[in-house]
Amino acid sequence: MSASGGSKAIVAALGANLAIAVAKFVAFAFSGSSSMLAEGVHSVADSGNQALLLLGGKRAKRAATDEHPFGYGRERYVYGFLVSIVLFSVGGLFALYEGYSKIRHPHELDHWYWPVGVLVFAICAEGYSFRTAVHESNELRGQQSWVQFIRRAKAPELPIVLLEDFGALIGLVLALFGVGLTLATGDGVWDGVGTVCIGTLLVVIAVVLGIETKSLLLGEGAGAADVAAIRSAIVDDDVVTGVIHMRTLYLGPEELLVAAKIAVQHDDSATEVARAIDAAEARIRVAVPIARVIYLEPDIQRTGPAAATA
Length: 310
Fold this sequence. Notes:
The chain contains 10 helices and 3 strands, in the order ααααααααββαβα. By secondary structure, it is mainly α. The chain folds into 2 domains: 3-218, Alpha-lytic protease prodomain-like (Up-down Bundle); 224-308, Cation efflux protein, cytoplasmic domain (Alpha-Beta Plaits). Keywords: Membrane, Transmembrane, Transmembrane helix, Transport.
């Protein structure tokens, strides 16, 4: 996986979540806290998320075949979609069910120091993982806001890890809130309330990630800045006089397809047109390096009704 795939952030998150999951289940075993159980399942789900992201990054590197001539780069989007929908939703729905059961049948916490100690440890570990994800994301997002980065990023891994870690930190605070109120009031209902809040948070994050990865699966084109750079690179004001129409499509996070019909002079020779196309392709790759698959079709610029159907 390339650096833009955020492999360091994924590995950091995987290690943190595995350690946290074990600690949470131990705390649940000693205390009976439903918040701890929900958070334990949440951490297991997050660990599965990171394993899927790593697997998707590895499978996306496979060479193109006759059946998949454009390669497997978009497989990273498939695994991102599985993460956002299946595992997050399973974690969220389990937490909602567990919280509802605890509200209906509350009981006091046993050995309260276990859940409190584990939650403090988990907040520190998740904070480190989140810091790593933020650091890697800052190298890519430039002047974009965090919302813009999550919505526009073509590599799904970093946005997923960012939202996972952010959701995990908020979930831990909610769990600490539920456990704390249960200890303060002696009413186990608050533990269930905290668990329901965790489940709601996970489902909301699942919906957000599902929407974003669905858009990538359907196929997104290049951004406005890259489109303008490609158009400018195509035209040489000699043989290639303009772009009649153009389409772009991400074949994967680091591979862009460019297909364009370009306007040439009616009296240019085939040799001149072929050389101009080769030169235009080279200029495109310099202007937008991820534009690796390029198809340029020469045509005579027409005006009037016929041009609209060209």
